[in-house]
Amino acid sequence: MNADVLRNVLETALPADKVVSLARALKVVERQSLIAIDQLVNSLVLVARTPSGGRQADVLRAYAEATGDKPVRGAFYDRFNDELDQLMTRLLDDSLAAIRTEPVLLPPCIDGVKDWLAIDSETVKLHPSLKDKFPGTGDYAAVKIHKTYSLGRHNIVDYHFSPAKEHDSCHLTVDDSLKDYGLLFDLAYPSQSAFGRASRRMCVLFASSSATGKRQLKT
User: Fold this and answer.
1) In this structure, which long-range contacts are made by residues 204-212, counting pairs with CB atoms below 8 Å and at least 24 apart in sequence?
2) What is the pLDDT of residues 17-53, one digit of tens each?
3) HEC per residue, 27-75
4) Model pTM?
5) Who's near 62: CB < 8 A, 6+ residues apart?
């Protein structure tokens, strides 16, 4: 993805007028500010996957490169508050809601279900001060992001967080909302009870182990 494509994606998913309007409604911006809230949001999105995990210094650097302005560090960091958190959460929820309304497009060879959902997790290390709230599997803090990717919509449609120490199998819920769906996941997620619930709901499960290459299909 080059810079032009990325810019178009951001402008489509996070139009400046929507970001500014919502920021005012949530009181993120209550008066004229030297910090452009739409550019701040874009910078937050862009640095989220940097090796350092999107720290505030990375956001400031990305903001300065995008706008040509370098705000006073303290004033910039003051923007990281509960109101900004609410804004980012609302923008994410709106984006996921929009994605879920898109049509499911599957090739004929796998279209026997409503959609195929790929479920996987990613672990991100956090600041050591968060170890009590988000314990990792060792002596460190980490959060696990559980993501659900729709093959028919070519996008993430759901997510949730957990302490990295918790096993993935605690975070696979097979209920009536997944009836007639196909699920793809690695072998860390399923349990016998999950397979039983899936069979009662005519749900197709396909488990894969990246370590051993084993595959298991249950319908």
Assistant:
1) 204/112, 204/113, 206/182, 208/184, 210/186
2) 999 999 999 989 876 678 999 999 999 998 887 765 6
3) CCCCCCCCCCHHHHHHHHHHHCCCCCCCCHHHHHHHHHHHHCCCCCHHH
4) 0.79
5) 43, 46, 47
- Helices 3-13 and 37-47: crossing angle in degrees, nearest 10, is 120
- Encoding tokens for residue 190? 């399923």
Sort residue 11 into left (φ over 0), alpha (ψ -120 to 50) or beta.
Answer: alpha
Mark 8-46 as b/e (b = at least 16 C-beta within 10 Å).
Answer: eebeeebeeeebbebbeebebbeeeeebbbbbbbbbbbb
What is the Cα Rg of the chain in Å? Answer: 20
CA torsion sign for 143, 148, 149, 153 is negative
pLDDT in tens, 97-146: 999 999 999 999 888 889 999 989 999 888 899 999 999 999 999 999 99
Question: Which residue type sits at 96?
Answer: L
Measured CA to CA, the distance from residue 120 to residue 143 in angstroms comes to 14
